[in-house]
Specification:
Blueprint: H1 2-23, H2 34-58, E1 65-67, E2 74-75, H3 79-90, E3 98-100, H4 103-133, H5 139-146
Antiparallel strand pairs: 1-2, 1-3
Helix pairs in contact: 2-3, 2-4
């Protein structure tokens, strides 16, 4: 009972902290925009569900996931197991409790090693380039131009 209350209290504090972070007006020159954050969150969520669906569909033909223990039993009893594996892979956490098999290995590598870091850096560099083109580079650049 007390653990449930403390968990709820912690979640509320985290949500309040996130709200304060995004509504605090002291960081006007920051490159963090709520619309960009929302878009990235939605894209990551859709991609995570998409890869979970791929793993789930692959399981119709072959074993896709196995438990990483001495039994090596087949995992993936339901869609939630594949969603869990996809989320762990997408965030590059890699607990190691589930191991991809067959074609799922290829998709796990694409998801973890290529998709997330590539998308992040392409978006970050695109935003930096856009700000510099609009004359919103860092302040040291502007001071040098004024002299």
């Amino acid at each position: 009972m007390i653990a449930t209350i403390l968990i709820g209290f912690t979640v509320i504090l985290m949500l309040l902290h996130l709200y304060y972070f995004f509504t605090n007006q002291q960081h006007k020159e920051s490159y963090i925009h709520t619309s960009l954050f929302t878009k990235l969150f939605i894209i990551m969520t859709v991609v995570t569900f998409g890869f979970a669906l791929i793993y789930y569909l692959l399981a119709f033909n072959n074993d896709t996931l196995r438990l990483n223990d001495e039994t090596g039993r087949r995992a993936g009893e339901n869609f939630w197991d594949y969603l869990y594996f996809s989320g762990v892979t997408m965030l590059s956490i890699g607990y190691g409790d589930l191991v991809p098999m067959g074609y799922a290995r290829f998709f796990a590598v694409v998801q973890a090693a290529l998709l997330l870091p590539s998308a992040y850096f392409v978006k970050a560099f695109d935003e930096m380039g856009r700000h510099e083109k609009e004359g919103q580079g860092n302040r040291s650049d502007k001071k040098g131009e004024e002299n």
